[in-house]
Amino acid sequence: MPLKKGSSRKTISSNIGELVGAYKEKGKIGTSKPKSKSAAVKQSVAIALSTAGKSNRSSKPKEAKKGGAFMVVKKKDGNRPVEIY
Q1: Res 85 pLDDT > 80
Q2: Could you tell me the end-to-end alpha-carbon distance of the chain, in angstroms, rounded to an integer?
Q3: Higher confidence at residue 10 or residue 63?
Q4: Collapsed DSSP state (helix, strand, coil) of residue 48
Q5: 51-60 long-range CB contacts below 8 Å, 24 or more apart?
Q6: In a domain, 57, yes or no
Q7: If you average pLDDT over every residue of the chain, what do you get?
Q8: Coil, strand, or helix at residue 49?
Q9: In a domain? residue 63
Q10: CA angle, corner 25, sides to 23 and 30, nearest 5?
Q11: In a domain, 34, yes or no
Q12: Of 82, 21, 12, 32, which Cα lies nearest the Cα of 1?
């Protein structure tokens, strides 16, 4: 059964349940074969949120515990700076 369209919590929860149920029956989600049930649940959440057009990350960066700012650290290999929260 195809996943439902919509971005409500109820629809997303329904889609997650459907994907996890498919994993329990067939041992795979779509064409991928997660190694464990917890990996299958994480993948199901990502698929359901992607279908709903939402992200599983917050839009605002978390504040650092000390000082309320973040540090910018340069990697040793010379790539672009990385923000550490």
Answers
A1: no
A2: 41
A3: 10
A4: helix
A5: 51/3, 51/5, 51/15, 52/6, 52/7, 52/11, 52/12, 52/15, 53/7, 54/7, 54/12
A6: no
A7: 79
A8: helix
A9: no
A10: 40
A11: yes
A12: 21
**Count of domains for the chain:** 1
Only one residue has tokens 């409500």, namely: 8
Question: How do strand 71-73 and strand 82-84 relate by DSSP bridges?
Answer: antiparallel
CA distance 85 to 75: 15
Q: Which residue has the tokens 């000082």?
A: 67
Task: Domain of residue 29: give its range.
Answer: 9-52
Mention every residue, 6+ apart, whose C-beta is less than 8 A from residue 52. Answer: 6, 7, 11, 12, 15
H helix intervals, 1-85: 9-26, 37-52
28-66 tens-digit pLDDT: 998 889 999 999 999 999 999 989 988 776 555 555 555
How long is the chain?
A: 85
Residue 31, domain member (yes or no):
yes
Global pTM value: 0.63
